[in-house]
């Protein structure tokens, strides 16, 4: 897409623009857009950025400023024009220029050899060239570019008609808003591809859901198709979707002269790549004859787990477009292409029973027990059903044949029960009314999907809380593990969290079964955990709705764990990402005497309750004063400014509330400034005011 020379030029221009910041001349607007498009391409298509995110943001803001002051300069393909400010209404139905057909499937070498024979017969020639590329497991889309501009994006729908999702497609930053098709004499073109979430984005998304006690999405494919139908483009943008474009289905050319690149499929992938699309140009490979094809498919299957995105097979296409035309299609699929499906990560099995597990917050999780089946190399026997609603929605019954899926490293889930295979012997699943461990009554809060055991001393909850405390993401006490927690609990050595730090090592030695080395190891690791950073301890305490991210925010807002008990509901809510529900859970936690006792005990045992922040130096000039920075500072780095406050004993808050004394406002300050203006006791300082206050000029 960009030659080395162009890359150097654009880098040069980037550097000059960065030097001129914050204000860039309006006359440079097109050059600035080119620079931003180049960096979007480096970041989203090549995954090889050449500037820091912060630098990109500054340049982007400069472009926004120019366009705001000179609206006549705005172009539909400006990098600023991805973000829409209105919600999508109902998606309009649109006609595809060419029907979007499906693919025929093959599952093994024989199927491919068979298909190759049919192709050779149909084409009337031997030595056929095949182009092989991944089969992306996402949601299919079609894009139309007219006179180089993206004019329409649509879902597959029924193959003939789909939904117009142009606004949402514009949120996918690897999809160019304009591309120089005209350089190839193409005036209108329809291209097809697949939208998906990378495995990493998918995991991040599900982690967020789990933190909120919501059932995670089943797989990246569902996540992608769901995301494309969201009404709010801003939310779509945050999903960080990816789009692979792999097929040119229609084009109109100047003087009816198609470019030579479009004579072969591999040529069209290269052309798309050349124009800035994330096509599988680098993954594709062309073979003459079927043997190489088979090998390439098998190699890809072996490495599928190492790819950053999910694929469910490979697609083999006859490379020459004139031969494709000759072969034609059935009503269902083209004869010139076939999918080679990887080993299914789905299987059917019998649902034998449901166990009800009690979590550390008392949540009752139904777990399906199925006849163990191998799926994707792992034997699956237990599958979480998350909550009662899932059982109802899927209409599951004991004795049902169920379809189970396990995609990559995603946890297995039940897709559906096969109602048509029922014999009438199936039994309904009875959700318990009492805790299966301590028999206390279960309660379900208004608006919540989970039933909980409300007995805080329920042995199951106690054990789970300890398991969570020592776990890898919490205090990370290596060599402790779930099995030891259970064993020590049964032996009566470990009744609560402080008990971890008072284990009877002598008894352990007497009991046998523990080597001296493993005992010393355990002891050392437990000792080490005392100095884990505060955010780990906060997460380890298992406050409901407080995941790792929130724990970090909390640790950063205080100097000592006990300070959290001083924060009002309002102050908690002013913290980043802390909503009403989370704030009230934290607030309740610190108003429970048992929790206060627990924290006191942990402090006596020598755990670090202090935040990582350095103790105030000097005379503590700012002690008792709180600060918050917003917008872009010009003279100081944000971190320097914050350090200035802290070394003088001042406190940094992460949100605007009545506890805030000073809001320091940089450029382009947003909602925090507006909010602060409404609270009279907050003093608003400019960067210069702040520097003066710190004794500078
Ligand atoms: S070619 C007429 N290539 O798989 C051309 N399809 O199971 C038909 N898919 O509907 C499509 N990766 O949504 C093609 N590299 C790829 C693909 C691919 C994923 C999807 C596509 C298609 C479905 C068929």
Textual characterization of the structure:
The protein is of the alpha+beta class and 697 residues long. The chain contains 24 helices and 24 strands. The strands form seven sheets. Strands 2-11-10-3-9 form a five-stranded mixed sheet. Strands 14-13-12-16-17 form a five-stranded antiparallel sheet. 34% of the residues are buried. Bound molecules: 2-(butylsulfanyl)adenosine. 2-(butylsulfanyl)adenosine binds next to strand 3, strand 8 and strand 11.
Could you list some keywords that capture this structure?
697 residues, alpha+beta, five-stranded mixed β-sheet, five-stranded antiparallel β-sheet, 24 helices, 24 strands
Topology, element by element:
Layout: H1 4-20, H2 29-45, H3 53-69, E1 93-95, E2 104-106, H4 109-123, E3 129-136, E4 139-146, E5 149-155, E6 161-163, H5 166-169, E7 186-196, H6 199-211, H7 220-228, H8 233-238, E8 242-253, H9 265-274, E9 285-288, H10 290-302, E10 311-318, H11 321-327, E11 337-341, E12 346-358, E13 364-375, E14 378-384, H12 388-393, E15 397-398, E16 401-405, E17 413-417, E18 427-428, E19 442-443, E20 452-453, H13 459-470, H14 481-490, H15 505-511, H16 516-529, H17 534-540, H18 548-557, H19 569-573, H20 580-589, H21 593-604, E21 626-630, H22 638-647, E22 651-652, E23 662-665, H23 671-677, E24 683-686, H24 687-693
Parallel strand pairs: 2-11, 21-22, 21-23, 23-24
Antiparallel strand pairs: 1-6, 3-9, 3-10, 4-5, 4-7, 7-8, 10-11, 12-13, 12-16, 13-14, 15-18, 16-17, 19-20
Helix pairs in contact: 1-2, 2-3, 13-14, 17-18
Bound molecules: 2-(butylsulfanyl)adenosine (IVH).
2-(butylsulfanyl)adenosine binds at residues 101-103, 133, 135-136, 140, 194, 246-247, 315, 334, 337, 339.
């Amino acid at each position: 897409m960009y030659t080395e020379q162009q890359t150097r030029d654009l880098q040069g221009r980037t550097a000059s623009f960065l030097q001129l910041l914050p204000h860039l001349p309006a006359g440079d607007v097109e050059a600035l857009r080119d620079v931003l498009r180049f960096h979007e391409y480096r970041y989203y298509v090549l995954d090889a950025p050449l500037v820091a995110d912060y630098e990109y943001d500054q340049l982007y803001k400069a472009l926004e400023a120019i366009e705001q002051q000179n609206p006549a300069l705005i172009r539909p393909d400006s990098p600023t024009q991805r973000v829409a400010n209105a919600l999508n209404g109902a998606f309009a139905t649109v006609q595809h220029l060419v029907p979007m057909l499906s693919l025929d499937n093959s599952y093994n070498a024989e199927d491919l050899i068979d298909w190759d024979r049919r192709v050779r017969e149909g084409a009337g020639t031997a030595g056929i060239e095949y182009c092989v590329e991944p089969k992306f497991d996402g949601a299919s889309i079609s894009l139309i570019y007219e006179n180089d501009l993206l004019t329409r994006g649509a879902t597959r729908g029924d193959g003939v008609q789909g939904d117009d999702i142009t606004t949402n497609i514009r949120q996918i930053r690897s999809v160019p808003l304009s591309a120089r098709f005209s350089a190839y004499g193409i005036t209108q073109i329809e291209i097809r591809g697949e939208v998906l979430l990378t495995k990493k984005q998918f995991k991040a998304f599900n982690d967020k859901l789990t933190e909120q006690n919501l059932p995670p999405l089943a797989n990246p494919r569902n996540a992608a198709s769901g995301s494309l139908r969201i009404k709010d483009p801003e939310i779509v943008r945050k999903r960080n979707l990816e789009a692979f474009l792999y097929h040119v289905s229609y084009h109109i050319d100047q003087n009816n002269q198609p470019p030579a690149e479009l004579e072969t499929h591999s040529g069209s992938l290269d052309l798309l790549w050349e124009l800035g699309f994330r096509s599988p140009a680098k993954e594709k490979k062309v073979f003459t004859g079927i043997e190489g094809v088979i090998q390439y498919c098998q190699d890809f299957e072996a490495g599928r787990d190492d790819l950053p995105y999910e694929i469910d097979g490979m697609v083999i296409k006859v490379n020459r477009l004139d031969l494709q035309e000759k072969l034609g299609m059935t009503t269902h699929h083209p004869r010139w292409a076939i999918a080679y499906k990887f080993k299914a990560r789905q299987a059917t099995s019998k649902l034998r029973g449901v166990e009800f597990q009690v979590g550390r917050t008392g949540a009752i999780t139904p777990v399906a027990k199925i006849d163990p089946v191998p799926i994707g190399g792992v034997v699956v026997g237990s599958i979480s059903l998350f909550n009662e609603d899932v059982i109802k929605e899927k209409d599951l019954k004991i004795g049902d044949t169920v379809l189970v899926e396990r995609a990559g490293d995603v946890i297995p889930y039940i897709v559906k029960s096969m109602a048509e295979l029922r014999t009438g012997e199936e039994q309904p699943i009875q959700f318990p009314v009492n805790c299966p461990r301590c028999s206390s009554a279960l309660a379900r809060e208004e608006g919540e999907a989970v039933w909980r055991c409300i007995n805080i001393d329920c042995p199951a909850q106690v054990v789970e809380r300890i398991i969570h405390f020592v776990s890898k993401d919490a205090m990370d006490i290596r060599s402790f593990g779930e099995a030891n927690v259970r064993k020590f609990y049964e032996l009566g050595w470990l009744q609560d969290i402080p008990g971890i730090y008072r284990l009877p090592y002598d008894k352990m030695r007497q009991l046998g079964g523990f080597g001296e080395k493993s005992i010393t190891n355990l002891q050392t690791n437990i000792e080490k955990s005392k100095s884990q950073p505060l955010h780990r301890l906060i997460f380890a305490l298992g406050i409901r709705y407080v995941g790792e991210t929130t724990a970090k925010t909390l640790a950063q807002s205080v100097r000592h764990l006990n300070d959290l008990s001083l924060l009002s509901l309002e102050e908690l809510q002013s913290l980043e990402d802390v909503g009403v529900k989370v704030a009230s859970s934290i607030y309740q936690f610190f108003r429970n005497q048992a929790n206060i006792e627990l924290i006191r005990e942990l402090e006596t045992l020598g755990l670090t309750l202090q935040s990582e922040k350095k103790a105030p130096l000097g005379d503590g000039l700012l002690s008792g004063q709180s600060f918050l920075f917003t917008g872009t500072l010009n003279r100081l780095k944000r971190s320097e400014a914050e350090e200035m406050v802290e070394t003088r004993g001042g406190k940094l808050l992460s949100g605007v509330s009545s506890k805030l004394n000073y809001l320091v406002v940089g450029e382009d300050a947003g909602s925090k400034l507006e909010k602060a203006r409404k609270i009279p006791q907050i003093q608003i300082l400019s960067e210069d005011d702040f520097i003066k206050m710190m004794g500078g000029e």
